[in-house]
Amino acid sequence: MTNSLSAITTKCLLFSHSVAWALALLAGFCVAYFNTLGKIDTHLRNSATHQAGQVAQYISFISAANPEKALVKELTHTLHSNRLSPSPLTEPSSIRVYNSVADLFIKKPKSTDSPEYYRQKLEAGSSPNGFYRHNQSIATDHHGVWNIEVILDKAQMEKKLNQELVKQFITVLICCTLIFSLIFLLMKRSLVKAIVETEIAKHTLDNMEEGVVVIDNNDKILNYNQMFIKLTGISEELLTKEGFKVHQLVDDSSKMRSLVREQLRINQRWCGELQIKRGSDEPIPAKVSISIVRNNVNRVAAFVIVINNLTKQKTREKQLEQLAYFDPLTTLANRASFDLRLKHEVDVCRRLDRKLCILFIDLDKFKTVNDTLGHECGDQVLKIIAKRFRTRLRNTDTLARIGGDEFTVILPDLDGNGGFEKLGRELITLAGSAIRLDQRDVFLGASIGAAIFPDDATHVINLLKLADAAMYRAKSQGRNQIVFHHSEHCIDCSEQKSVAHELQQAIYKNELQLVYQAKINMRTGNIEGYEALLRWKRDNNLVAPAKFLRIAEERGLINQVDRWVIRAGIQQLKSWHTRFRDDISLAINISSIQFYDAELIPFLGSEVHRAKLDPAKIEIEIKESTLCQDEQRAAKTIRSLKRLGVKVVIDDFGTGYSSIGCLGKLPIDCLKIDQSFVSNIKEEQNDQTVAKTVISLAKSLGIDVVAEGVERKLQETVIKDLGCQLAQGYLFSRPLPAKQIERELESVYEVHA
User: What share of the chain is helix, strand, coil (3-state, %, to 5)?
Assistant: First the structure.
C-alpha cells in the first residue's frame, strides 16, 4: 500500500510540474499580449501629441524671443539642431510646420526620418494607412498662426512594440516560472512529508499487538491492520467484500451495538470486554475500545476500534485463580476459598438465626505413610481421603484442604449438636477404612476438632481457632475421635484471667523480651537484616507465643503487646545503627487487630520520627490471613504504610489465605514462604511446585522472597536453585538475644564512638 502510494504521488508531482510550466507559458503570453493589445494607436497618438507640443513650445519661445526676425530661419535652425528641446525627439517621425505664407520641412539627422522622405513616400503612392498624421495649430503674438503636422510611420512603431512584447513575455515567463517552481517545491515538500508520516503510521499500525479497524457510520471498513486479520481469522477478501459488517464478529451484536452506540453518544468513547468470533473456532475474549473521529464540522466521520486479545491474560487469571482458591492436589477448596465461604455461611446463619459447625480434621499416622512409602503414595492417600469425604458430604457443605494433611468442613444447618457429632464420626470411619497402595493395605485415622457458631464464637477467625484447638485436644486424648470446643478448654477461664493479668503487668513492667533471627542473602551469604520475635517468661517458664498471644487477642491486650514490640524493636534498631552500621533492617510482626487499628500509622510514624530512623529499614510483617479479612481496608492500610516509608512483608505466604491475583495490585515488598512448604521441599513435589510458583510470581511482580524454616543444607540448595533471594532458619542462625547479636556485630564491624 505504501509503495503504490509513493508511485501515485510521484506521478502527481511530475504532472503538476508539467502543468505548472504550461501555465507559466500561457500566463506570460497572455500578460504580454493583453498588455500591448490596442496600444499602437494610443502610442502613436501620444507620441505625435508630445512632439507637436514640443514644436509648439519651440515656436512660441522663438517667436517671443525674436519678434522682429524672420521666424522661419530661426525655427529651422532650432529644430534642426534640437538645442532648445527639453528632450530629444525619440520617435521616428516627420514634422511639417507651415503658416499662411510659407511651407517648411524640417530635416533630422537620418535621411529616412526627414519630412521629404515621408512626403516622397506619400506622393509615390504609399498607403495613407501606413502613416499616422496629427495636426495642431498655434497662434503667436508677432508671427500669426502656425500649423504643425506630425507624421509617424506605423510599421516602425509596430516593430518596436513587438520587440517590447517579446521583452514583456520573457519577463512574465521568468516570473511565473519562479513562482510556479516555488509552489511546486512547497507542494513536493508537503507531499513527501505526508508520505513519510503515512508510511510511519502504517508501519506502526501493522506492528501493533492490538487489532485496529476503522469503520464509517454504516459499519463499512475503511482501514485495518494485519493484527486485526490475525485476531479475527478473516481473510482480506472477506473484509473488503460488500455487505461485511464488523459487528458480525460479536455475539448478540444487535443488543451490544445499541448499547455501545448509546455509550459513545454520552461519553464519546466505549471500552469493555467482548467475545470475538473466529469462524468455526471458539470465540476469543478481547478488550475492545471504540473511539469517535469527527470531521471539521464536528460530525461523526468514523469509528476507530482497537481489539486487544485477552486469551493469555484470561488463561493466566484462571491459573492464578485455580492456584489461589483450589488445592492443586485434591482440587478441593483451599484456605482462601474456605475462608470466604465460612464468612458467607456465618452471615447467613446470623441472619436466619441458625447454627453452623466447623470441623478441623487432621489425619493420624499420615507422616508414617510419607516416611515409609514415599510422598507419591502420600499424595494418593490424600486424593482418596478427599474423594471419600466429598461423597459423604452434602452439596451445601464445604470441604477444604488447608494444609499437608489437614482438612476443614463447614456444616451449615444440621439438626442440633448431635447431627454434627454423628457426621464427624462417619468421617472418622471413612478415614480409617483400608487404602490399597502398592499391593498393601494402609490404615489411617482422623482427629477432629469442632466449634459451633454462635455457641462457641461469633467471629470467623475465632471459630476456626477454637476448632483447631479442639483438634489438638482430640489428638492428646488418644486420636481418632471428635472433640467439641465447649466440652473442654485448652486453658480454663480462671487460668486465662490469670495469664491475661500477668501479661498486662509484664507489658507495663517491660518484662517482655525480643529475640532476633538473622535473614541471610542466599547469593552472598551476608546478613541482610533481622526479624524481631516476641518471648515471655512466666514464673521462669517460657510461654509459647501462640498461647499468650491468643489470650491477648481474646482479652483485648493485643494492641498493647504490638505497640510494645514496635517501640522496643525501633529502639534496638536505632542502637545498632548508631554503634555499627545504618543499613541493618528489622522486621516487626503485628497482629491483624493492630494492622486494622486506625492508630497504627500515627503511632508507627511518631516512633520512627522520635528515633530519627530511615523508615525504609523497618519492615512490617503481617500474616497472609490478615489480607482476606477485609481486602479493601487491607489495601488502604498497606498504602498508608508505604507512604510512611516502611516496607510491607507478607508472612506465612502459600498457605492459601489470600488471592494471588491481588498481589500485583498491592505495593508489597516481600513474601515469606511458609516453612511448611520448605520443610519437605526436596521430597514433597507439591511443596516444591508451590514454592517455585510463588518465587516466579514474586519475581515477575518485583517482590522479594524469603524462605522460612531452612534447617538443612539440602533445603538451602533447593531454595537457592529455585531463585529465592533470602532465607532464614536454624541452618543459618537461631533466634538470639540482642546482646549476643551485638557481640557478633562487634566482631565484624568497628564500633562507633
Answer: 55, 20, 25
* pLDDT value for 62: 67
Q: Which residues contact 189 (CB under 8 A, 6 or more apart)?
A: none
Q: Which pLDDT belongs to residue 616?
A: 93
* pLDDT surpasses 60 at 613: yes
Residue from 354, 379, 748 nearest 584 by CA: 748
Could you tell me the CA-to-CA distances from 377 to 332, 374, 406 in Å, in that order? 18, 6, 17
Give the model's pLDDT for residue 353.
85
Q: For 63, which DSSP code?
A: H
Task: Write out the three cell numbers for 596.
Answer: 486494622
The 8-class DSSP code of residue 664 comes to G
Residues in the chain: 753
End-to-end CA distance of the chain: 77
Q: Is it the case that residue 302 has pLDDT exceeding 90?
A: no
Neighbours of 687 (CB within 10 A): 22
Angstrom distance (rounded) from CA 729 to CA 733 = 6
Rounded Cα gap, residues 272 and 600, in angstroms: 39
The pLDDT of residue 137? 74
Q: Between the ranges 20-24, 346-350, 684-688, where is the mean pLDDT highest?
A: 346-350
* Ordered alpha helix ranges (H), 295-334: 311-325
The residue type at 126: S
**All three cell numbers of 637:** 492500610
Burial 529-563 (b: 16+ CB within 10 A, else e): bbbbbbebeeeeeebeeeebbbbbbeeebbbebbb
pLDDT for the residue numbered 35: 59
Instruction: List the helix and strand counts (H, then E) for the chain.
Output: 25, 26
Say if residue 79's pLDDT is above 60.
no
Q: Cell numbers of 120, please?
A: 516622397
